[in-house]
Amino acid sequence: EVFELTGYDRVMTYKFHEDDHGEVISEITKPGLEPYLGLHYPATDIPQAARFLFMKNKVRMICDCRAKHVKVLQDEKLSFDLTLCGSTLRAPHSCHLQYMENMNSIASLVMAVVINDGDDEGDSSDSTQPQKRKRLWGLVVCHNTTPRFVPFPLRYACEFLAQVFAIHVNKELELENQIVEKNILKTQTLLCDMLMRDAPLGIVSQNPNIMDLVKCDGAAIVSWLTEYHMDSTGLSTDSLYDAGFPGALALGDAVCGMAAVRISDKDWLFWFRSHTAADIRWGGAKHEPGEKDDGRKMHPRSSFKAFLEVVKTRSLPWKDYEMDAIHSLQLILRNSFKEVEAPECETKTIHTKLNDLRIDGFQELEAVTAEMVRLIETALVPILAVDVDGLVNGWNTKIAELTGLPVDEAI
């Protein structure tokens, strides 16, 4: 739609990866132009300052990168300097203008694709109306080989299309996360069942097992006292070679990434990943993970010729939700190991699955019952009680708050 509305020579969708480098994931061009689809670009091609401005101004148009700038004169009576960061008339940085000309892109129109940041619960001072933080997912980029001006109504329509696209991206990501979280929760529940049935080795040998918790190519429970991570409760890396493991090259492609957590003084749980077997096409400059913006050394790239990098000694990165699942299992296993090593200790906490508690003795039954009642009454979710016939005969405080009716008045 943007391609047809604006008439630009090239329109592409540019996605930012977790390490901030970008990739062209979709593209449409007029005949005769070299395609950029599938090319990766280093994070420094779009500096953090530019990304910050895209979060404030969702649309940026440059009609002619070769046009001369027009100076803006400030009234001498003003006691402070004006900033044009929020103005569409702001002149682009000379480095970016040269960058465009080197790409043979004389005019451009760029629209930000902003979505909710799923890693943050809220960033509002008003606790009653928390607002989700936003993040720059990517850009819709239009290039033209000749000067081009797009009037405001058309730019506004394109901005609306970019917002609709952002909503779709956000919904797709939320749906994907919900499916992943549901599968993780289901697997965790089954693993807990195995532990409660005194079958700890089943989490490795049976189906499902810990390999189903997160995507990996192998996992094992071992007793290992490491020299370099003795005090660590866990570590993760997508490259054992980069992490300094001396035997990384000897392991070959089979083991490149690893996530490990300590579950007892001697026991560790490991997940291993093989190499990605990925070929990445870079658009003239490779992204270096440690490379940062340096305003004093900003200079435009002169080469955009694609070259191929074969990724070796590196696995797929460990995502945040995968590490959350691993750490949750770590806590479950720690508690399970404590119960196995000290069976004489009385249960002092109620596990998530109350129906799996093993109750020994009438006194312990009373204590657990009292604790169950307390948990139900203080729960932040509504809980109903039913009799043997399935009729409601009670509910907790949360339902009373939602309905405005205490259980005594309603029944």
UniProtKB/TrEMBL annotation:
<dbReference type="InterPro" id="IPR013515">
    <property type="entry name" value="Phytochrome_cen-reg"/>
</dbReference>
<dbReference type="Pfam" id="PF00360">
    <property type="entry name" value="PHY"/>
</dbReference>
<protein>
    <submittedName>
        <fullName>Phya protein</fullName>
    </submittedName>
</protein>
<dbReference type="GO" id="GO:0009881">
    <property type="term" value="F:photoreceptor activity"/>
</dbReference>
<comment type="similarity">
    <text>Belongs to the phytochrome family.</text>
</comment>
<feature type="domain" description="PAS">
    <location>
        <begin position="368"/>
        <end position="411"/>
    </location>
</feature>
<keyword id="KW-0677">Repeat</keyword>
<keyword id="KW-0675">Receptor</keyword>
<dbReference type="Pfam" id="PF00989">
    <property type="entry name" value="PAS"/>
</dbReference>
<keyword id="KW-0805">Transcription regulation</keyword>
<dbReference type="Pfam" id="PF01590">
    <property type="entry name" value="GAF"/>
</dbReference>
<keyword id="KW-0716">Sensory transduction</keyword>
<dbReference type="InterPro" id="IPR013767">
    <property type="entry name" value="PAS_fold"/>
</dbReference>
<dbReference type="GO" id="GO:0006355">
    <property type="term" value="P:regulation of DNA-templated transcription"/>
</dbReference>
<dbReference type="InterPro" id="IPR003018">
    <property type="entry name" value="GAF"/>
</dbReference>
<dbReference type="InterPro" id="IPR043150">
    <property type="entry name" value="Phytochrome_PHY_sf"/>
</dbReference>
<dbReference type="InterPro" id="IPR029016">
    <property type="entry name" value="GAF-like_dom_sf"/>
</dbReference>
<keyword id="KW-0600">Photoreceptor protein</keyword>
<dbReference type="InterPro" id="IPR001294">
    <property type="entry name" value="Phytochrome"/>
</dbReference>
<dbReference type="InterPro" id="IPR035965">
    <property type="entry name" value="PAS-like_dom_sf"/>
</dbReference>
<feature type="domain" description="Phytochrome chromophore attachment site">
    <location>
        <begin position="1"/>
        <end position="163"/>
    </location>
</feature>
<dbReference type="InterPro" id="IPR013516">
    <property type="entry name" value="Phyto_chromo_BS"/>
</dbReference>
<dbReference type="InterPro" id="IPR016132">
    <property type="entry name" value="Phyto_chromo_attachment"/>
</dbReference>
<keyword id="KW-0804">Transcription</keyword>
<dbReference type="InterPro" id="IPR000014">
    <property type="entry name" value="PAS"/>
</dbReference>
<keyword id="KW-0157">Chromophore</keyword>
<dbReference type="GO" id="GO:0009584">
    <property type="term" value="P:detection of visible light"/>
</dbReference>
